[in-house]
Amino acid sequence: MDFAVPDLAIVLGRGVTDLLAAVDEACAVGVLAESGNGLGFRHPLIRAALYDDMPAPLRAAWHRDAGRALAAAGVPPDRVARQLLRAVDGPGGAAEPIDEWMLTWLTGAADSLIGQAPGVAAELLSRAVASSPVGSAQHGRLAGRLADALYRLGDRAAAEQVAIAALEYAAESDLLVDLHSTLAQCRMLDGRSAESLATLDEALAAPGISARHRARLLVIAARTHSILGELDMADRVATSALEAASEAGDNWAMGWALLIMALGAHMRGRMVEALPLYDRALAVTQADPALTDLRLLLQINKAVALANLDRYEEALAAARQARYLADQVGTVMRLAQAHGALGQFLFETGQWDEALAEVKALNADLKEPAPACNELGIAAVISFHRDEVAAAREHLAAAVPYAQRIGHRLVGTLALARSLDCEHAGAPAEALAALTAELDGNTEELEEIEDLLADAVRLAIETGDLSTAQTLAGHAATLAAESEIPHRQANVLYCRGLVEHDATGLLAAAERYADASRPLMNAKALEAAATEFVRADDRAQAREAFSRAVEMYTTLGAAADVARVQAEFRGHGIRRGPHSKHRRADSGWDSLTPTEIKVAAFVEEGLSNPEIAARLLLSRRTVATHVSHILKKLGVNSRTDIAREAALRTIASR
């Protein structure tokens, strides 16, 4: 549908200036139109009419010639591969044999193609493997690349099957290492780590192994130890991998070794140590298109580290860049991770409509079980706070099959959602149990439980379980010891303030939560401070803290919290002041988020979803979600209706 003008010139063997008259004519009669930085057919039906009118053999030959011309001109492999895929599509979708030139080109370009567009690579490689003689060196190399592409797409079962079949004939040391690496990674992510390490030991014991091969195998071993929680061993193996990779000049292995070392620091809570390691790895991988997938993983993990330091502006920028790049190259696994990270950051910073757009952008079945649980937990927590109980419980029910797949692994947002469900049912003791059950046996892994501590202490105080409250407040103090991270300092102030009934300490916690850009906890701390001021009969300060809490809950759209707090303090003769904000609109233009307003403006201009995505650095799926929300909030049925409503609003404002 869309294409670059220079590509058209290459395919036709003509200069761009020679095409101006024809392009102008095609645009004038409505066949073509500008699309981003290139051109595109004005409507899919126009392209289909022209394309389908050609005989299939002629189309295939033109696609093959176009691919060869683009390859000769040095165009990125993904654009060449898209032409070649069309060339081997037979009648009715049947695959045509791939010729020798295509096999040779794909063998050389596979690494870059997999890094840029693993989905396209997997399609083309599967046909290439079927077209090359089984047992030949070329067949083995292509099969190794196909297994890698399938692994990156998340189809580990198919990747393992291809790798096992290829190992029966593989003789080259490079190929053996690649196949063993893919096999080990598949087994590691499927929870078969012992099998993975045994596979790696076998490969490392092969005679004549080079520094490059050794580095790559050590990287996979280090990843396996990291996933098993053996952080010290992971660090030692990653350090050895980095030395071997530096000796061999292997950027892939250097990038991965640095990532594993950064993750080790990250998991120990040493975010400041992790950031320079991420930056070193990003610098190593920056110039190599074949390392796009690794660069995405680095960018996403760096964003998470920044968020853990409450540096949300930088974290959001890094995650948005990763999401946009993942959407461009078609890496579903990384796109899901980028959406998930953004959803988490936006949830924590109170941008709940935007958070919901991110966590709902991809179907949960495309995600790993733990992230799926986390994102459904986020949606459920937001729904409970907004008094959308039925929707919240739907999200909890949807999380059940994914939670079963991860066993007793802690997912903080899901635990909070289950706790809120119990609170809504008027069962605070069960709500506390929903959190403390997740805390049992995790006292040595406080990083995993810190976001549960504040609510757990609050519930323990409410149920009269002072011993549990003091223990949990001690965990918060341990995390905050010698830490300058605002939310950790806020947590200990909040927990201690609840245990000691210290209104001043709770106000200090609220201020620190504000510094951390965490509005929900800011509101909770203000509410708790108001309660303590009432207890001390300081009604002026109680009213001030109460009003600020209600305003913050209102800004979040937390209707359930607003109603609860107003009802509670009405009993003390304290009501909402005249300067408090009104409840957030549920429909109409006032209900749109800032991002939705921007999207609506671009829809009014006539931009397509891909064009809007490029302008706002969003993924196309996120834009589609925003458009869906706009249609629902405005009560209209089409993009044309959005444009009309936007124009009428502009006229009315003038």
Helicity level: over 70%
Tell me the number of helical segments per DSSP (H or I, 4 or more residues long). 34
Taking pLDDT < 50 over at least 5 consecutive residues as the criterion, the unreliable ranges are 578-582
Beta-strand segment tally: 3
Could you report the average pLDDT, rounded to the nearest whole number? 88
How would you sum up the global shape? globular
Strand content: under 5%
Instruction: Kindly report the oligomeric state of this protein.
Output: single chain
Describe the biggest sheet?
A: 3 strands, antiparallel
Q: Structural class, from helix and strand content? A: mainly alpha
Strand order of the largest sheet: 1-3-2
Query: What Rg is obtained from the alpha carbons, in whole angstroms?
Result: 28 Å
Ends distance: 39 Å
Task: Please explain how this structure is put together.
With 654 residues, this protein is an all-alpha fold. The chain is 74% helix and 2% strand. It is built from 34 helices and three strands. The chain has a three-stranded antiparallel β-sheet with strand order 1-3-2. α11 runs antiparallel to α12, α12 (211-227) runs antiparallel to α13 (231-248) and α33 (620-634) packs across α34. The radius of gyration is 28 Å and the shape is globular. The relative contact order is 0.04. Residues 578-582 have low confidence and may be disordered.
